Amino acid sequence: MFHIFLHFIVPGVVAGLFFRKRFWFAYLIMIVTMVVDMDHLLANPIYDPNRCSIGFHPLHTIIPIVFYFVACFIPKTRLIGLGLIIHMALDSIDCQVTNGVWYHITIPSAISLEKSISLSRYYHTNLTYEVSLS
Ligand SMILES: [Zn+2]
Predict the structure, then answer these.
(1) How far apart are CA 75 and CA 82, in angstroms?
(2) How far apart are CA 56 and CA 106, in angstroms?
(3) Residue ranges with CB less than 5 Å from ion ligand 1
(4) What is the pLDDT of residue 110?
(5) What separation in Å is there between the alpha carbon of 88 and the centre of ligand 1?
(6) Based on CB atoms within 10 Å of each CB, which residue in 32, 66, 100, 123 is the most buried?
(7) Rg of the chain's alpha carbons, rounded to an integer?
């Protein structure tokens, strides 16, 4: 719950520090970027506290994040970019706090790890067999 609270507080602090003259406009644009969480609807289950959203949900992966970062440097898209980068940073911190990782470890790498474990078992068995033969 504290994590969701931060999604409302941090943009407010940034708007207060850097966009004081148009605080409400800046704050609202950054809050609206939370629609990026719509990509959770593609996942099953939609919400899983033990799953890190960074690197898992399509709009929370590295290529879109590069675009959010670039958007921070273009005056017209700066607030959208900032809102999204703050969002990604908070989600990543949340992953670190709850799961001890900064990003979701993709399933293919988990499979290959499993494969290499079973492969090492296979070689281990072969090795014992060879040793027993000689
Ligand atoms: Zn998110």
Answers:
(1) 11
(2) 7
(3) 37, 53, 91
(4) 54
(5) 6
(6) 32
(7) 22
One-letter amino acid at 114 equals E
In angstroms, rounded to a whole number, what is the distance separating the alpha carbons of residues 54 and 62?
8
Confidence check: pLDDT of 96 > 80 = yes
Q: What is the mean pLDDT of the chain?
A: 83
Expressed in angstroms and rounded, the spacing between residue 36 Cα and the centre of ligand 1 is 7
Using a CB cutoff of 8 Å and minimum separation of 24, what contacts does 14-21 make?
14/82, 14/86, 19/79
Alpha-carbon distance of 102 to 120, in angstroms, equals 29
Percent of the chain with pLDDT over 70: 78
* 25 alpha carbon – ligand 1 mean position (Å): 22
Question: What is the whole-number distance in angstroms between the Cα of residue 111 and the centre of ligand 1?
Answer: 25
pLDDT for residue 107 is more than 60: no
Distances (CA, A) of 125 to 57, 119, 131, 133: 40, 10, 10, 12
Judging by beta carbons within 10 Å of its beta carbon (0-12, 13-18, 19+), is residue 11 exposed, middle or buried? buried
Least confident piece of the model among 57-66, 81-90, 107-116: 107-116
